[in-house]
């Protein structure tokens, strides 16, 4: 449930809604607040001085600096952040003075702007390197803590399936983060967007995205200091020009348990519909809590439906609760597959992914597969190279409703107005 936080005697009570940021294209209509983020307000705010924050950005890093430069499959973790420090003036120029028409998204942290970096022609539109600049709202309650977490975690990891944090800016009260620009935007936009400029993803592309995202999580889980991502969802999976999936937004990343423990206990922070049940109920966070979130995203990829949607009929608001019975039988699974696929998908492969999703969604963490096992299973499915089926002629009744649903609106509430597929989009989180 949503927490109401009393910020002190005599001060007003505040219900703190946190929305992740989208980067790519302007957006309208905020995502319904029922998909949310649970937790209490952070104690440290951006009113602290630069001195009190200190220059030791990596001081609270979750990794052991003495561990050295550690290499893993196609990725590495550095002992300290390796980031460029940008000046505020440089980013102001890159975003044309943070002009409103450069806004790609907005959330509790602040706004994200599109920008160009070009030393030779800093003011020339369309030239240089495209970037996404996340700028802290001075009134944000979550700001500095998550800004620091992004720097400490994402600033130290390098992997093909993790979004690159290029650098940061910290001048006076200004806090900014600079990321690589992801041309195709978020998985969320492609699955739930609508309009003539938003095209449904083909089956092979969906499978490629699932594998890439799984590899990103597996990398984090298998590092010497296990990292629990804690907020895995479709809006945090971004896509480059060739639809390579990259995980973004490390504001909630947490170090995994020590060898002598199975979990860490922490404030409950995540996104409704994706957060693992044991974590929501007890605050006990397991590495396999991320696996549950991955299972939810697999179901979204299969169905083209949001994890939570209060506009669906009663009993169907929570996607996982509703479709679980359909995942165990191939005949039933057919009834909930995304209509955007137009029947063009391999039924055996879809069923195997449904089975994998069920394993990831197991109530007990110990019964869920590791992300390494998930990657292996998905790659095995891909290697079978089963050809997508050709759809049969459909009757009119199949083109209107299914399972008593209202007609599906295939648009994210944060869907871009222009440049479809270029938005970094995150569902709202409530702390």
UniProtKB/TrEMBL annotation:
Q: What does this protein do?
A: May be involved in plant defense signaling.
Query: Which segments cross the bilayer?
Result: none
Positions with biased composition (Basic residues): 394-412
Q: Please list where the region (Disordered) is annotated.
A: 28-65, 380-431
- Which cellular compartments is it found in? Cell membrane
UniProt lists the family membership as follows: Belongs to the protein kinase superfamily. Ser/Thr protein kinase family.
Q: What is its EC number?
A: 2.7.11.1
Output the superkingdom of the source species.
Answer: Eukaryota
Q: Spell out the protein name for this chain.
A: non-specific serine/threonine protein kinase
PANTHER family with a match to the protein in the record:
OS01G0588500 PROTEIN-RELATED
Q: Where is the composition biased (Basic and acidic residues)?
A: 384-393
Q: What SUPFAM superfamilies does this protein map onto?
A: Protein kinase-like (PK-like) (SSF56112)
The enzyme class is: transferase
Query: What's in the keyword line of the UniProt record?
Result: ATP-binding, Cell membrane, Kinase, Membrane, Nucleotide-binding, Serine/threonine-protein kinase, Transferase
Domain annotation Protein kinase: ranges: 98-381
Report the Pfam families cross-referenced here.
Answer: PK_Tyr_Ser-Thr
For this record, the Gene Ontology CC terms, alphabetical, are: plasma membrane
This entry's Gene Ontology molecular function terms read: ATP binding; protein serine/threonine kinase activity
Q: Kindly list the positions annotated as binding ATP.
A: 135
């Amino acid at each position: 449930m949503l927490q109401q936080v009393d910020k002190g005697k005599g001060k007003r009570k505040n219900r703190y809604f946190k929305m992740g940021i989208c980067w790519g294209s302007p957006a309208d209509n905020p995502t319904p607040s029922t998909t949310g983020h649970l937790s209490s307000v952070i104690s440290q705010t951006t009113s602290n001085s630069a001195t009190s924050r200190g220059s030791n950005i990596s001081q609270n890093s979750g990794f052991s600096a003495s561990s050295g430069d550690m290499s893993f499959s196609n990725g590495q973790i550095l002992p300290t952040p390796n980031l460029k420090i940008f000046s505020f003036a440089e980013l102001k120029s890159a975003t044309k003075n943070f002009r409103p028409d450069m806004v790609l998204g907005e959330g509790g942290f602040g706004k994200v702007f599109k920008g160009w970096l070009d030393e030779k022609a800093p003011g020339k539109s369309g030239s240089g390197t495209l970037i996404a600049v996340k700028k802290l709202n001075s009134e944000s309650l979550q700001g500095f803590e998550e800004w620091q977490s992004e720097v400490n975690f994402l600033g130290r990891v390098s992997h093909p399936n993790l979004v690159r944090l290029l650098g940061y800016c910290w001048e006076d009260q200004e806090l900014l983060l600079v990321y690589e620009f992801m041309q195709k935007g978020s998985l969320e936009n492609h699955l739930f967007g609508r309009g003539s400029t938003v095209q449904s993803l083909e089956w092979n592309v969906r499978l490629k995205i699932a594998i890439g995202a799984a590899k990103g999580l597996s990398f984090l889980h298998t590092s010497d200091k296990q990292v629990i991502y804690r907020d895995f969802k479709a809006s945090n999976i971004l896509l480059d020009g060739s639809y390579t999936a990259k995980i973004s937004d490390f504001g909630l990343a947490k170090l995994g348990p020590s060898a002598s423990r199975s979990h860490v206990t922490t404030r409950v922070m995540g996104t409704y519909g994706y957060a693992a049940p044991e974590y929501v109920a007890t605050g006990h966070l397991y590495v396999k809590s991320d696996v549950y979130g991955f299972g939810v995203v697999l179901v979204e990829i299969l169905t083209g439906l949001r994890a939570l949607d209060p506009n669906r009929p009663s009993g169907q608001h929570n996607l996982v609760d509703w479709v679980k019975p359909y995942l165990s039988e191939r005949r039933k699974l057919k009834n909930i597959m995304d209509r955007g696929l137009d029947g063009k998908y391999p039924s055996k492969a879809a069923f195997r992914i449904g089975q994998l999703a069920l394993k990831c969604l197991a109530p007990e963490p110990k019964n869920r597969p590791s992300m390494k096992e998930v990657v292996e299973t998905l790659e095995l499915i891909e290697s079978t190279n089963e050809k997508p089926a050709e759809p049969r002629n459909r009757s009119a009744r199949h083109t209107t409703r299914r399972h008593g649903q209202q007609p599906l609106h295939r648009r994210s509430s944060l869907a871009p107005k222009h440049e479809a597929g270029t938005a970094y989009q995150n569902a709202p989180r409530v702390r």
